[in-house]
Design goal:
Strands 2-1-5-4-3-6 form a 6-stranded mixed beta sheet, sandwiched between helices. Strands 7-8 form a two-stranded antiparallel sheet. By secondary structure, the chain is of the alpha+beta class. The protein contains 10 helices and 8 strands. Pfam families: Longin, SEC22a_C. This is Longin domain-containing protein. It is a multi-pass membrane protein. It comes from Rangifer tarandus platyrhynchus.
């Protein structure tokens, strides 16, 4: 009987299957193990690089590095060192054939079907070549496993970790908080436009002053920062108005303070009316941010 029954390559961040060996086993226990492997694949990012999930009849082994993981279903008679040696060989074969960009851009399951044949060949090699021919590789893996043991799970853990056991939810899940904001008002749109205008004026003046200072003097660094810091604060005010953010009041006060202090510091480069305009826009934006609240919405229980 084969020791390595099934193998696949998956993407770590979301468990997307990239390639897999041909499946010749259709027993109920094996199909259940395949289902649990799929569940485990979706949670690989939570585990260290190597791990094993053991059940009554089969065991699942996985080995991951960067954004690629190799997984295998083995019989219980398969030594752990042999399984991880197989997975490491498979990982090197796959990463030598496809770079991280290809893996990251994959959008559909089994996007690398042509690699299936490689998995079959490597699987056959480990199943039917005598272990004495792989002594050096197995010895290296055994030493690594001795110093860095793989995380050990049970096949039931793969479902418990996912909140499911035999198709039933084990815990009560509260609906996720709804962070939809109230509709944007006309005055809010005006504050956004004025804020963007102030940000653009600050950026243009700051860059112009920086170019001039680099050529003439270095004493105007304070004036440059007094333009650029309010520029960043204006952009962040736009963000706070459009999107929900925790500790919003504290952030609004800080942005308003930066804008006011920056404009007061620029007295001399700006006249009084320009300073009042920038500070007035900052106060208007702050008021709009604080008055735009989260929208109350009932959860869609029937969906």
């Amino acid at each position: 009987m084969s020791l390595i029954l099934f193998a696949c390559v998956v993407r770590v961040r979301d468990g997307l299957p990239l390639s897999a060996s041909t499946d010749f086993y259709h027993s109920q226990d094996f199909l259940e193990c395949r289902r649990r492997l799929k569940t485990l694949a979706s949670r690989l990012a939570q585990y260290p690089g190597r791990g094993s999930a053991e059940g009554c009849d089969f065991s699942i082994h996985f080995s991951s590095a960067r954004d690629v993981a190799c997984m295998a279903i083995c019989s219980l008679q398969c030594p752990a060192a042999m399984a991880f040696c197989f997975l490491e060989t498979l990982w090197w074969e796959f990463t030598a054939s496809y770079d991280t960009t290809c893996v990251g851009l994959a959008s559909r399951p089994y996007a690398f079907l042509e690699f299936d044949n490689v998995i079959q060949k490597v699987k056959w090699h480990f199943n039917y070549v005598s272990s004495t021919q792989m002594d050096s590789s197995l010895g290296k893996i055994q030493e690594e496993l001795k110093f860095q043991p793989p995380v050990v799970l049970t096949l039931e853990d793969t479902d418990v970790a996912n909140g499911v056991m035999n198709g039933h939810t084990l815990m009560h899940l509260e609906p996720a908080p709804n962070f939809r904001m109230e509709p944007v008002t006309a005055l809010g749109v005006l504050s956004l436009i004025l804020n963007i205008m102030c940000a653009a004026l600050n950026l243009i003046r700051g860059i112009h002053l920086a170019e001039h200072s680099l050529q003439v003097a270095h004493e105007e660094i304070g004036n440059i920062l007094a333009f650029l810091i309010p520029f960043v604060a204006c952009i962040f005010q736009c963000y706070l108005y459009l999107f929900y953010s925790p500790a919003r009041t504290t952030k609004v006060v800080l942005m308003l303070l930066f804008i006011c202090l920056g404009n007061v510091y620029l007295h001399g480069l700006r006249n009084l009316w320009q300073i009042l305009f920038h500070i007035g826009v900052a106060f208007l934006s702050s008021h709009q941010i604080l008055t735009r609240q989260l929208q109350d919405k009932q959860s869609d229980c029937g969906v």
